[in-house]
Amino acid sequence: MPSGGDVIAAVPFTGRARDVLLGFKYRNRRQLAHHFAGLLVNRLLAEGVRPGDLDVVTWAPTSRQRRNRRGFDQAEMVARRVALQMGVPCRRLLERDGDSAAQTGLDRATRLHGPTFRGSPRSFGQRVLLVDDVVTTGSTLRSADRVLRDAGARDVRRAAVATTPALVHRSATPSRARRRSTDRSVVVQGPWAA
């Protein structure tokens, strides 16, 4: 089962999937959240993640200014639907610090540092599924994961609807990919990674 530096992703962030995800985020196509959640739940189940393995689902929150501009947080919408489909509670366990800028539009070196979060004490002892919409450098999920663990989460599994192809670790089997990941870099599990 993916752990440590791994991210389970449903699709690569290319072509049609990229266009549809961008429409969801920037053209207010909120109805797509249910579909994305279904794709992600199917991928989680295929990777061996079962509802009984989790106590709570949460998300990596977007910046306050993005949420206010869009009227919603896309990662929250997907996380809530993933939780509903898996029959697991969904709770806000992270707050993005006010001075954390949105990652979009920043250069890669800056994005690698990731945003800063504050964790909820409700994370203590919990087995958490941490959801985001798109992973590019992996820094947002790494930062959120670290904060949840610092707040006492027993286990954190990271998942996203899509990831950039540059993050896909191509290996013969997912287990070999996980064994080779000794640092905190992102190893993405998905149908295109095998």
Structure in words:
The chain has one domain (6-189): Rossmann fold, CATH 3.40.50. The longest helix has 15 residues, at 32-46. Helix 6 links the parallel strand 5 and strand 6 (155-163). It is built from 7 helices and 7 strands, in the order E-H-H-E-H-H-E-H-E-E-H-E-H-E. It is of the alpha/beta class and 194 residues long. The strands form 2 sheets. It has a 5-stranded parallel beta sheet, sandwiched between helices. It has a two-stranded antiparallel sheet with strand order 3-4. It is 36% helix and 20% strand. Mean pLDDT is 81; it is low at 1-5 and 169-194. The protein is globular. It has helices at 15-26, 32-46, 64-70, 74-86, 108-111, 139-150, 174-180, and strands at residues 6-12, 56-59, 94-96, 117-119, 127-135, 155-163, 187-189.
Summarize it.
The protein is an alpha/beta fold and 194 residues long. It has helices at 15-26, 32-46, 64-70, 74-86, 108-111, 139-150, 174-180; strands spanning 6-12, 56-59, 94-96, 117-119, 127-135, 155-163, 187-189.
Based on CA inertia axes, which overall geometry fits? globular
Main β sheet profile? 5 strands, parallel
CATH class: Alpha Beta
Give the end-to-end Cα distance, rounded to a whole number of Å.
15 Å
CATH topology (level 3) name: Rossmann fold
What proportion of the residues is helical, as a percent range? 25-40%
Mean pLDDT: 81
Q: Which strand-content bin applies to the residues?
A: 15-25%
Q: Return the structural class.
A: alpha/beta
Could you give the order of strands across the largest sheet? 2-5-6-1-7
SSE arrangement, N to C:
EHHEHHEHEEHEHE
Radius of gyration: 15 Å
Give the number of helices.
7
- What is the CATH-assigned architecture? 3-Layer(aba) Sandwich
Question: pLDDT below 50 for ≥5 consecutive residues: which ranges?
Answer: 1-5, 169-194
Number of strands: 7
What count of structural domains? 1
